[in-house]
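thread from #wetlab-drylab

HS: before we spend reagent money on co-crystallization trials with NAP, can we at least see a predicted complex? here's what I'd submit
DV: go for it
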Amino acid sequence: MKTVRSYVVGEWYEASDGFVPLVNPSTGETIARVSSRGVDFAAVLRHAREVGGPALRAMTFGARAELLGAMSKALRAGRDELLELSCRNNGTTEGDGSFDIDGASGTLYYYAKLGQGLGDGRFLPDGEGTQLAKTEGFWAQHALTPRLGAAVHINAFNFPVWGFAEKAACALLAGMPVVTKPATATALVAERAVEMIVEADVLPEGALQLVCGSTGDLLDRLGPQDVLAFTGSAATAARLRDRDNFRSTNVHVNVEADSLNAAVLGPDVEADGVTLDLFVRDVVREMTQKAGQKCTAVRRILVPREAVDRVAARLSDRLAKVTVGDPSRDGVHLGPLATAQQLEDARRGLEALGGERLFPDGEPDLPQEGYFLAPTLLLDERGDRPGPVHEIEVFAPVASIIPYDGSPAEAGRIVALGGGTLVTSLYSDDAEWLEESVERLAPTTGRIYIGSEGSAEVAPGSGAALPQTLHGGPGRAGGGEELGGLVGLELYMQRVAVTGERALVERLTGG
Ligand code: NAP
């Protein structure tokens, strides 16, 4: 049986015990096993800090950008193999797998281009300089410089390739070496993606290490120049953060956690208009893409009370056209959940959510083997007040309609009951309604996606976390910030104020 390995201290390491089995979620068949038992985590950190870090910091932004370009190329070259592995290990259709794999190579490519534009410097100037005295003899410039430690990345099971790449792109461009840990359930895909990059021999020694399986005592060893970037559930994040060494040395932590994203339909949207078509298409895609196992998936659908029946009918009609089944087969839109545990959690979550089931109407016809769940649309008449729909993330193709009065104030109040989201989408062509809604929603969400007639043909849907825009959200969503162009580099860099004679300060900082 295939044993998933770790890539540490410049070598592939295969454990001999402590294995966790990996299964094909479409069949339940065991396809590989994973363990990191025996990995020397002190040596891993030493290798990153003493070998990878100095090599990266000796390079300019432009040179680091070239590394990202080469990583992107390696993943593009291995795309078909990764798609096949993702189908077997993650239960993805070709479209769902491509969202992960092409999203990874695309994000690396974007940061390669961004880094090229930063040129020959090693400091990243931050804003404009300021004169502090009567003359330019005393001047201030803020600038960012890479931290001296290791960037430890812990990722969720749903994006084994994009999750690795979007974090690695920012850390490597900033000048920090990466230790990446995929979720065990889908580590087979992440291992092969990293192996493709190692085989391409594009990175300096120590710049990238991979840990498949438990992180052992790795996190207890992190210190003031290290970074932990975590993606996963809020419960795991709380456990990981609660460490003495994190408190005593201020380890830099970024958390991307779960989120009850909302789609809000404006009261102006006509029954036969382009914007309603867009809303229906987007909501169904955001419910069903990757079988709803997306942190940015729509979980709450706010619909003006008088429009609930017709909107529910449109959504149900469209959901009825979604074919559930073996993701390797043509014509299948929705594969299984990734693990037996995910299916059990989703069923339990569905029970706890309550509400009236609008779709499917009756018993769905699902494959006998594997971890399949039908797309499920609920109506929560009590969703305008605190309750399970604002607390429970069912990580599956499940969403609830919440009737509301159509006002921006009410939309803002109801969405805020979720405690902070990654993305909120608004569908309207009424500029005044949108203006007030954006103002109400902005404090509780990381990204606002506006769907209107003018965007209908080109907008990618609210679930796409693009490298140009911020990914992260306040409160329950983790309070983190990733991507967003140069914003994504800040986690890996120390901001320093350099003061002195203007010409010298500008020469030193590139300001
Ligand atoms: P999870 O159970 O919280 O696990 C996330 C990661 O943490 C995995 O790599 C897991 O490794 C690791 N982990 C768990 N306990 C650990 C420990 N004690 N020490 C070190 N690492 C530990 O989440 P998941 O089930 O993989 O992913 C689903 C969740 O992630 C959902 O809630 C979803 O909303 C969220 N998510 C958020 C984003 C975002 O960007 N905001 C993106 C994707 C997913 P093992 O697998 O080895 O246990």
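DV: The first strand starts at residue 2 and ends at 4.
HS: ok that's useful, forwarding to the group
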